Structure formats: C-alpha cells, structure tokens
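As a warm-up, study this chain.
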Amino acid sequence: VISFGSHADQVIQPVGDITKLSRSVKKLAVQGSTNMAAALHLAAEKFPSPTSDGAAVVLVTDGYPDDEEEP
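Now compare it with the structure written out below.
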C-alpha cells in the first residue's frame, strides 16, 4: 500500500493477509493534494519487474491528480 498526498509513502509491504491489508487501508487519511505521479513512480521503484503470480498495481484516489507531471 502506497499512500499519496503531497508526497508518496509506502505504508505496508505487499502481504497476502487480507486482514493486515484491510487494517492498513482503513488507517489512510486525506492529505490535501493528489500527487499521483509520485505514487506511481514509487510503485515502479518498489516493484520494477513484472511478476508471474498475478500481482497488480491498483490505483484508488479521492480526487484528480494535481501534480505537474504526467503519471
């Protein structure tokens, strides 16, 4: 889970435990801006290689990107 507002932070490592994942997501809070490009860059940095196990990046946001850079 990567949260993003003014900047992006990895909140939790990838997990197969839906309870841990759910707890992590429930703790997320609104952070003023929507720096979507920073979140996608961090995701690409943390997970640079495609996986064969069906892993995917899922982007969930409460707003439009307001960063200058295209994601």
